[in-house]
Amino acid sequence: MDQQRDEHPHRTLQMVEEPLDAASQSLADALRASFSVLKGIMLVLLVLYLFSNVRSIESHEEALMLRLGGLRRVVERPGLVWALPYPIDEIVPLPTKKSNDLLIDSHTFHRSENEIGKPLSYLSRGYDQGLNPSLDGALLTADTGLAHVQWKVTYKINDVNSYVTEILGDSVEAADGLIRVLVETVAVQLASELTAEQLIRTRIDYVQREMKSRINERLAALNSGVDVTLVEMDEPTPPLQVRNVFYATQRAENRKEQRIRAAEKERTKILNEAAGAAYPRLIRLFEQLDRGGTEDKSVKELREELDRLLEQEVEGEAGKRIKEASAYRAKVVSRMESDVELYRTLLPEYTRNPMMLINRLWEETKQQIFESPGVTKIYRPPWLKEFRLKIPLDPEHTRIEEAQRLRKQEFEESKVRRRERLVPLGWEYD
Fold this sequence. Notes:
Distance between the termini: 212 Å
Number of strands: 9
Mean pLDDT: 77
CATH topology of the largest domain: Tetrahydropterin Synthase, Chain A
Low-confidence stretches: 1-5, 419-430
Order of helices and strands: HHEEEEEEEEHHHHEHHHHHH
Number of helices: 12
Shape: rod-shaped
CATH architecture of the largest domain: 2-Layer Sandwich
Oligomer: single chain
CATH superfamily of the largest domain: Band 7 domain
Largest sheet: 4 strands, antiparallel
């Protein structure tokens, strides 16, 4: 009965662990060690994965972070930046403090491999070699001329948020493409406002400033976060086929302008010498008088203004002659007034005794003539029947007259110097 109870299917079995043999034990130890190493490797890989998105931001860069494709508006400064592993976070570094240079050759002629790097003076094209629209670029100017220009543009990214969100760029390539399009568009517009000579020679500084200003206006309107700092024209030139003719024409124009400037300078010099600084107003008054006056002033008023200007402000040769003429006029008027006064004084005496007045005046006139310098007085004795004069006069007479003049001059100077009356002695007073 006990044997049947033991064989019942629901009885409890007791498990007895039997010791493993040596091979099995070694295998179990190896598996346990392998699992431990695998856990360590997985832990290291996990740590590396967590720190896999650590970036070093250079001193000339700033960075933005994208989390699950969305922009976090936090600008990361230079240094180490940690982010969650990709693709959760993405760090976008951009060179914000570094200037980027861009060369745009859309508006210049095509150069072969042998011509690259050579100056324009070494390049040439025949008259029969036209422009190839698929290779050669050019700008059409306001005078229907053509000009080749190569542009050098320097720009900076000054707002990383705006650049990434508006331009959708994670490198400077997007900025390069945008600025290239703007340069090509603005250059075509600006060239249509200028002549070929102005674009190539005379207004280069204006073109560079205007290009920079207009490009920056468009970049600001796009809220691009990009700012152009410099635009330069590299070797602007007319088409090589007509380059020599173009510059020959410009040299002729330069000579013409130089001669015009020289003529204007000479004109100004002559007018200054003639009338001084008042010559512009003189010219204006003459032109107004030729037109018969102005709306504000009549011919009479203009003449009065002209007379006042001539008498008071005109200098130079004209002013000198006007002053001399005024002085001569005053002298003549004064002499005429003196003559009139003398006539009025002598008239009563002439009325009383005409002959006596005439004789007295004749004696005074003879005395005045004889005392005039340069008059030689010769006395002829009345008994001489023949009287001869030497023409020219005897040099001895001239010597005597000169000696008398010098003595008289010395006498006058000595009298003034010594402030006393001197009695000259000489052979003429013996």
